[in-house]
Amino acid sequence: MRGRLTSAALATAALALALAVAPAGAAAISSRDIAATHAYLTADHAVLHTTVSTWSRVESAIGKLDARFGAECPHIGAGSPQSDEEQKLSLEVAGALWATGYHTNARAVQSFVKAVGRLTWSNPATTRAARSLTRGLTEMTKLGVPPLCADVRAWAASGYGAVPVDVVRYAKHAEAVEVKQIPHRLLAPFLQGSDRRLAARDEQLNTRFEELEFQHGQDQWNRLLEVLSLNQ
Fold first, then answer.
1. Is 159 exposed, middle or buried (0-12, 13-18, 19+ CB in 10 A)?
2. How many domains does the chain have?
3. 24 lies in a domain?
């Protein structure tokens, strides 16, 4: 009958309408998400590979830090009581180690921040996680090595009462900085092809980085506390 659409014509019309309305927007978002995810994984791999493969540079820099304080104020905390106030100084010591490590790899970290800082995803949670990560890394590269000798001297001069205000401020700031990778669950929907393998390699590198940081970090902290004769 004239004017009646056949089943084939109806299917063609429906397909045309679907392509014109929904998929065009979805494809655009998907393309952006895929590109942003690839850029993030590539930058993440670069900074993690650099950090892990040149870990000896961090060890060397921290060795120089120990030598510096060993020359400036060896065993300055000898005889100090173990207390809540000393815990704040211990955290300041940890901050000195974090600052030294991030300063050593500052160029690689800054390249990562530059590459990731402008990325966006259709999922706001993914974008927020990326911004939080780049902010944390930027804060760590700006974290200074505190004046440990002067701070311990001031604490001793007070009769081992309250530590200086700058110690409390520094310790709170250093402890508050968060450096967390974008959770895999937020990236998984956008992983395509070879990026799945790249994500797996990044996970392995991050695990290795965490192992190095934990295994060596505790020893480095204890060593610098010994240099200053401070309790944990």
1. exposed
2. 1
3. no
